[in-house]
User: Fold this.
Amino acid sequence: MCVTVLVVKHKVRDFGVWKSVFDAREPVRWWHGVRRHWLYRSAEDPDDVLVAIEFISPEQARAYLQDPELREAMQRGGVQGEPHVHFCEPVNLSGAGYGNLP
Assistant:
């Protein structure tokens, strides 16, 4: 099965505030078909955030990005400027629980 990972990098005013808004939107992410997500922040700047969100398809990822409530949630969470958004497909995964990809 091929998945799409939406990778979003942005700067926030306050990580704690942003994280509480992100956590509150978990039901919305599941409704859009999110399988799982990963959060990272820069070791040099904890308000520099990278989010990777796994979807079954690129269509689901695009629908999530077009949700009008997402932009409002980003404002409430203190996202500064436009986020950098990338659609990615895994080509090599390793570690426990990962099989070979086609």
Remarks:
- The domain at 4-88 is CATH 3.30.70.100 (Alpha-Beta Plaits).
- The chain has a mean pLDDT of 90.
- The longest strand covers residues 79-88.
